[in-house]
Design a protein that fits this description.
- Helix 3 crosses helix 5.
- This protein is mostly helical.
- Helices cover 65% and strands 0% of the residues.
- The chain has a domain of 65 residues: Arc Repressor Mutant, subunit A, CATH 1.10.10.
Amino acid sequence: NLYLDAYRRRRRYDQVVPLLVPEEGRDAQDAAADRADVAAALRHLSPRERACVVLRFYDDLTIAEVAARLGLSTGAVKRYLSDARHRLEPVLGPQPGFATEDVPTISTEVQR
């Protein structure tokens, strides 16, 4: 069991490592500029929106965990994240990974 666990862990690590390697051609100065842009953009948010965004995307918590940590309902957290997205997009541009849901939704529209 120990061998199999180590083998699986090593195999999974080998799959994830290419995702962690920085893009070619990017240097520390570009990364610092990106961080400064995000920090400046976060200042445009209300304290509640900022807390929700930081907990959700920097601390990588689920919506329910953010709600529990801030003492809010999950609907309120989703609303704060949605409002934050709309306030950040003009400053940072569209962010494809900035979804407020934990899981993708399935369209329930009926095709005719």
